[in-house]
Amino acid sequence: MSKEIADSPQEWRVTATSTPFTGKKTGVRTDEVVMPDGSVVSRDYQVHPGSVAVLALDEDGRVLVLKQYRHPVRQKLWEIPAGLLDVPGENPLHAAQRELYEEAHAKAEDWRVLADIYTSPGGSDEAVRVFLARGIAEADGERFAVEDEEADLEHARVPLAELVRGVLAGQLHNSCLVVGVLALSAALAGEGLDALRPADAPWPARPFTA
């Protein structure tokens, strides 16, 4: 039997830490970390509350996507609904349901976990849980009032196969979209969607309350 391939928790000793920058939602931390040979090196990284993303799949096999301007990369990117875990200990499913409503004015009947990722583990502790949402319908009530970049959103429903082709062709770059569509494609080609983890599956990277 082959050895299970899985990430494992480990924490090397930190002799000192500081926070040279704190922004509205994230900050930068500097840790002095002891290496295996006993040397001590500085490691700077972004401190992030974590995020959720939603791959919403309709009855025709299309994915709800939106196009948003992202200033750091100077591009408008096709993405799936996503947002920050603004409240410490926030239930990620509740956050995902909120983002689906706010960004797509939609709700879903069935929720599963597609993937848990670290977006850039060499320079940030951001953890993202990507959900699969099915049984899509228009949300109740008025649309959420958007502002800033979100006031310029474009919305579309795109067949999954078309998104997979776009990822492999280097035309789509948003990490949550890339991970979501490839994970969904793999699940459909493998054991099926019912084999995905439940929406309340444990998430050690961002523990949450029920």
Automatic annotation (TrEMBL):
Domain annotation Nudix hydrolase: ranges: 46-180
One MF annotation (Gene Ontology) recorded for this entry: hydrolase activity
Signal peptide segment: none
Entry GO terms, CC: cytosol
GO annotation terms (biological process): nucleoside phosphate metabolic process; ribose phosphate metabolic process
Gene3D superfamilies: Nucleoside Triphosphate Pyrophosphohydrolase
Statement: the UniProt record of this protein carries the keyword Hydrolase: yes
Protein's name according to its UniProt entry: ADP-ribose pyrophosphatase
Organism: Actinacidiphila guanduensis
Organism classification: Bacteria, Bacillati, Actinomycetota, Actinomycetes, Kitasatosporales
